Amino acid sequence: MKGHKNPREIINMDRVTGLVPGSKENYNACLVIVDRFRKSFRCLPCHKEDTTMDTALSFWNNIIATCGLPPIIISDRDPKFTSESWTKLSDILGTKIKFYKAYHPQIDGISERMMKIMEDIITRFYAYGTEYENHEE
User: Fold this and answer.
1) Integrase catalytic domain: which residues (predicted)?
2) Angle CA 25–47–66, to nearest 5
3) DSSP 52
4) Which of 46-50, 80-84, 89-93, 114-118 has the highest mean pLDDT?
5) Structural domain of residue 87, as residue ranges?
6) Is residue 5 part of a domain?
């Protein structure tokens, strides 16, 4: 997807689950937000069991409140993102959520690469006994 000219104009959003718990909060997943313009990512630690509202609240508190509202959010069809709650939130805020099939490299190649990097970082942090929390590259 091309056409973005500014940071945070188009973001990819996905969840990585199945991580080894590596903090006192026992986080075992991350909500990964990729800025397609800057080719940077933000990893928000979470739990695999988090509800849709937990995920939306984390997105609100950590992305919208600090960086502003992206006009376009791209995500796979994870039930956490396709729920009525996300649809209502995007309607209220006036942002578009575009969905794609998972593992679609033409659309999501950058976020898949970023997630691989993030998994590697967390694995290395855990191997050295370091806790991971909120990390931005």
Assistant:
1) 3-137
2) 85
3) H
4) 46-50
5) 10-128
6) no
